[in-house]
């Protein structure tokens, strides 16, 4: 991004991206206006927007993919050099979407305002000199390019800031001791829960995110459990934890991640860990052990992080889901010597961590080096995810925040790490026996029809991840964009064929999740709709 990175521009661009992808693009209402501008027609409200581009936009004729907007937009019929603010743009979107959906989204402006405010504060934070893995996790300052409020979090503003990874949050977990007979636990064999703090006899330790502790303390059920002795408040203790980009997953070092319940709306979801989801994650860790070994052999360098244990406590009808904890393997011992871990999303930030900015500047300055780097990246990330779906009926949600890339000493992609088994699904038609052995709620959470499973694989891997990476690299090297997509085509063509992939290679569209419409309706992520999007693959 050559223009100054500002919260205003980031927010306007996100709204434009959503509008084009979900509304105007699929309707064929996006047309070029010379090399530097594009016209976006708002069909229902009979308005047109004129938005400026950083570089020529690929694939305009078949539904746009990732528009390289600068953040400058105005009404085509009433041009204004100052451009529309995000609030003015949202008002136009409200008029259009209200005509389409029959309802206005009164809740959305506050969410976008909260996202805008946090982005502005994050962008004002001085560049970080430290470049360890957790520093890179906390360098994601602007977030999802195709979400209207990528940094919105419900809750008290002071708590949002205090626990924001973008602002460098560090804190101890809040420990409670729960009567042992009220604890539910699941773990893979030979895994013990670490006890950094001693629990009173007859009690078990349960860590809470301090934000969650504050939220629950303002209710009735949790204080009642503390008052009658079902739980004992032990206070903050243990090492300083740092939240990763997901906000609720934390780590002190590379030995372990802890995924905590957080009764906070982030993007499209309330980020709690219901017990059936905790069970699903740990159950899948055991069930997928053969696939984990198979991937590591068939695709050397592929790592699948296991969810090793989970627990919660029955402290009241509404509390068990808000107390769930999942422990996940860390990166220690998972990467080859000399390989450093980088969250994939960190490559796509318009203002990346200085260490990644230097790498991106070096590789995008040399076209041959860029294409070599990108081909290696694709070969690490794409084949194992598609193989798991096609041959094993396993749906990995390999979007940018769920993937860690290992770079060798020269900065070249050498490994891939897949994480977050709670989001993994099993294709019902392929894994019926495994699903039948699960408790009913776990089975309902994990099982998916093949068609819906492909929606998730294709969107997360091809649209969110690969498409997001192409856009970020093309922003820095515009002339290389066709070659970047050609590399995608080459890698996809080399994957063992299956029906859905053959359709993509033949020019069929790929399903793209509708984050704007999902937020507009106030729907959960699992209820998101999809729109068709054409990858610019065909030569």
Automatic annotation (TrEMBL):
Q: Which domain of life is it from?
A: Bacteria
Name the Gene3D superfamilies on file. 1.10.510.40
Q: Which PANTHER family match?
A: L-2,3-DIAMINOPROPANOATE--CITRATE LIGASE
Q: Enumerate the spans annotated as Aerobactin siderophore biosynthesis IucA/IucC-like C-terminal domain.
A: 372-526
Organism field: Kineosporia babensis
Q: Which GO terms describe its biological process?
A: siderophore biosynthetic process
Instruction: Please give the name of this protein.
Output: Siderophore synthetase component
Ranges for domain Aerobactin siderophore biosynthesis IucA/IucC N-terminal? 133-348
